[in-house]
Amino acid sequence: MSKPQKQIHLAAHFPGVNNTTVWSDPEAGSHIEFSSFAHFARTAERARFDFLFLAEGLRLREQGGEIYDLDVVGRPDTFTVLAALAAVTEHLGLTGTINSTFNEPYEVARQFASLDHLSAGRAAWNVVTSWDAFTGENFRRGGFLPQEERYSRAKEFLATANELFDSWHGDEILADRATGTFLRDAKAGAFVHTGQHFDIQGQFNVPRSPQGRPVVFQAGDSEEGREFAASDADAIFSRYATLKEGQDFYTDVKSRLAKYGRRADQLLILPAATFVLGDTDAEAEELAGEVRRQQVSGATALKHLEFVWNRDLSGYDPEGPLPDIDPDVSDHHIAKGRAQVRMYRDPLAVAREWRELAAAHNWSIRDLVINTGNRQNFVGSPETVARTINDFVQADASDGFILVPHITPGGLDVFADKVVPLLQEQGVFRTEYEGSTLRDHLGLAHPDDLREQRAAS
Questions:
Q1: Is 222 annotated as a binding residue?
Q2: What is the pLDDT of residue 393?
Q3: CA 54, CA 82: separation in Å to the nearest integer?
Q4: What is the CA radius of gyration of the chain?
Q5: What is the pLDDT at residue 17?
Q6: Which of 153, 295, 339, 406 is the 20 to 30 Å CA partner of 261?
Q7: 201, 192 Cβ separation under 8 angstroms
Q8: Over the range 256-284, which residues count as b (16 or more CB within 10 Å of their CB) and which as e?
Q9: pTM over 0.85
Q10: What confidence score (pLDDT) does residue 170 get?
Q11: Contacts for 18-24: CB closer than 8 Å, 24+ residues apart
Q12: What does DSSP say about strands 51-54 and 199-203: parallel, antiparallel, or unpaired?
């Protein structure tokens, strides 16, 4: 008996501050005007996507004392954007990245509960942490947390927020549906939390929202991040682009769920993915090369090289050879507000490898960055891309993808028009929304139902 086909989950990432977005393209729009967000969200909804995702940038990045050359002025506040999008969409989930290092549980829980009400049950929270003291300078608690304590605070932050969401659960809360008013006793919304990071008590003043709690996403790939996701998240992002790497990550994270009394289908694994489409595979490959060169200018290439060399390389020709000088491996970091420096655990080894590649292929600095940097995940005709996406999901390398177009806001349109219908024809993607909340779209149970299931067992 053949295994039934999995249903694919698709979401759309409104591009953040990075060189993936080609702002120089004539078709590129604004990063801050609401019309861009509205166009993007409406495209995702007509394609029947699960949700729209917003990343977060709390400070403009610097390098060499200057604002990083790829940064834009910034982005409006996440909750403001998502609340506005709730008014121009009906089904699309609304996911915001909110930091657990620089915020407080009460205010974040209140904001998400409000968004869940305003959107009729479509809110989701991507819980992130920050080790970055440079970003932390914007906050009273700037840089105070050692790296090893980030997940400790995040875990307690989420647990505390859940206590606030759940403080309106119980038989003591009655609603007069005719008037929309709530009849409650003094216990409704009351909370007390005492822990390592938070010692708070009071009354939560937002009633139980349609989803009970927002859907929770987690983005960490460390050991601590994987455990955090397995114990507390509804979905985890993955950065693995190949089938084998994706399968290994999928197997590892899903295998951790049982110890927390959870089933494999109670945590979704959703990698971010870029794409380039053409009428034929050959046309798409050619276009992908053009896009990649637009994404990596000479100035961008030098900045990326500086992440490894940890030195000012502005005097080097990006169309010339790699520096002969070795990377600076001291604790001083030339890049502020970026994690890339820490991603290269052995800069000297990376530099040696890159020099060997450049020599073997006669690559300039820019050529090297273009050929070793992040590539488009899905390149080809609509038929090829649809088939590849389905192959990944059916092979348990992911449960779906969060798509990141290189043009904002119209870059998602071609995927919605040409790839989604093919997935629908294969019977692996919805043709209509079957529920009203984001939990419905993702196949996730309501927290109250999960509580009853645990009590029964």
A1: yes
A2: 97
A3: 9
A4: 23
A5: 64
A6: 153
A7: yes
A8: ebeeeebeeebbbbbbbbbbbbbeeeeeb
A9: yes
A10: 53
A11: 18/70, 19/70, 19/295, 19/296, 19/300, 20/274, 20/295, 20/374, 20/404, 20/406, 21/406, 21/407, 21/408, 22/291, 22/294, 22/295, 22/406, 22/407, 23/72, 24/294
A12: unpaired
Gap between the terminal Cα atoms of the chain: 31
Q: Which residues of the chain have pLDDT under 70?
A: 1-2, 17-19, 63-64, 68-73, 141-144, 147, 169-186, 335-344, 374-375, 451-457
Estimate to the nearest angstrom the gap between the alpha carbon of 378 and the chain centroid.
Answer: 18
| DSSP type of residue 101 | S
DSSP codes of every residue in 380-443: E-HHHHHHHHHHHHHTTS-SEEEE--SSTTGGGHHHHHHTHHHHHHTTSS-SS--SSSHHHHHT
- C-alpha of 160 from chain center: 22
Output the pLDDT for position 201: 94
Pick from 114, 78, 94: nearest CA to 217: 94
Q: Is 82 helix (H, G, I), strand (E, B) or coil?
A: helix
**Superfamily of structural domain 9-279+376-456:** Luciferase-like domain (3.20.20.30)
Task: Measure the CA–CA gap between 226 and 253, rounded to whole angstroms.
Answer: 6
Nearest to residue 54, comparing CAs of 89, 85, 94? Answer: 94
Alpha-carbon 72 to chain mean position: 19
SS3 assignment for 236-261:
EEECCCCHHHHHHHHHHHHHCCHHHC
Q: Which residues, 6+ apart, have CB-to-CB distance to 206 below 8 Å? A: 109, 110, 113, 114, 117, 168
97 is in an annotated binding site: yes
The phi, psi pair for 364, rounded to 5°, reads -80, 175
Neighbours of 88 (CB within 10 A): 14
Q: Exposed, middle or buried by CB within 10 Å (0-12, 13-18, 19+), for 78?
A: buried
Give the per-residue pLDDT at 101.
87
Measure the CA–CA gap between 4 and 11, rounded to whole angstroms. 22
Closest CA to 319 of 278, 365, 354: 365
Largest CA distance in the chain: 76
> So where are the chain's domains?
9-279+376-456, 297-372
Dump pLDDT digits (tens) for 303-336: 889 889 999 998 999 999 999 999 998 877 776 6
Q: What is the mean pLDDT of the chain?
A: 88
3-class state of residue 57 by DSSP: coil
Whole-number pLDDT of residue 172: 45
Cβ of 426: how many Cβ atoms within 10 Å? 13
Looking at residue 269, what DSSP letter applies? E
